Amino acid sequence: MIIERTEAATGSRIGADGLMTEIAMLDILQDTEAIGARSDLDFWGFFDRTDCMMVIVARYVQFLNRPKYGEKLLCRTMPYANSVRYGSRYAELLDGEGNRLACGWLTALYVNWRTLKPVRVPQNLVDGVELYTPPVWKDWDRRVSAEPSLLTERGRFNVKRFDLDMFGHMNNVRHIEHAFDYLPEDAHPKALRIEYKNAAPPNAVVKAKTAVVNGKTYVLLESAGGEIYSVTEFTL
User: Per CATH, the architecture of 148-235 is what?
Assistant: First the structure.
């Protein structure tokens, strides 16, 4: 099912330059994706009965234009791949005239949120999900990596209450928001890819390491003990 939601470039989403921040755009995309994922009642009914959730393992987003304060927006999402183990969705943010402002693709695994073990969805439910061809397609590789020897520690922070999602781990977009802190102050990425490795728990001390390789900026977030939480590749 294709899901559409109306949105707006309101005050709390606007940066110092009068335009919506990339993080606010990501929040809208992710919220719409979550609503879209729950739109298939049979499929999601299985999730509710089995304590299953979708855990995003990778995301790719292109930023095409940032809306101004007060602009009316439309966000649309649709599934484009599905299996017994994972699902993939496309989402896009449009302005009032239908111009594309941002678009993204994600892949998520089906996991029991109590045990964090993978869940296998019955094939008949998988077959019942209608798939769509995204209006924009990008052949993206969900594997994001940076040579460890090139990474330099740039800072540390703690996972705070406002970072957490409903399952008690750092929210997917908050990974990206913290990674933004290690970009040049005036940077506005054209695109990003992120791969999520492990959940960051409450109060964790997170080390941020960065590197610039072949024109791409990498930000790796890891625990004080070296467990990798996520790695983000920015195209500036």
Answer: Roll (3.10)
Q: Are 234 and 178 in contact (CB under 8 A)?
A: no
For tokens 């993939």, name the residue: 88
Tell me, what DSSP letter sits at residue 29? H
Distances from the Cα of 58 to the Cα of 61, 105, 110, 221, 226, angstroms = 10, 8, 13, 15, 20
Q: CATH 2.40.30.200: does it fit domain 3-127?
A: no
DSSP string, 1-14: --EEEEEE--GGGB
The answer for residues whose C-beta is within 8 angstroms of residue 51's C-beta and 6 or more apart is: 112, 113, 114
Query: Tens digit of pLDDT per residue, the chain (236 long)?
Result: 899 999 999 989 999 999 999 999 999 999 999 998 888 878 888 988 999 989 999 999 999 999 999 999 999 999 999 999 999 999 999 999 999 999 999 999 999 988 889 999 999 999 999 999 998 887 776 678 788 889 999 999 999 999 999 888 999 999 999 999 999 988 999 999 999 999 999 999 999 999 999 899 999 999 999 999 999 999 99
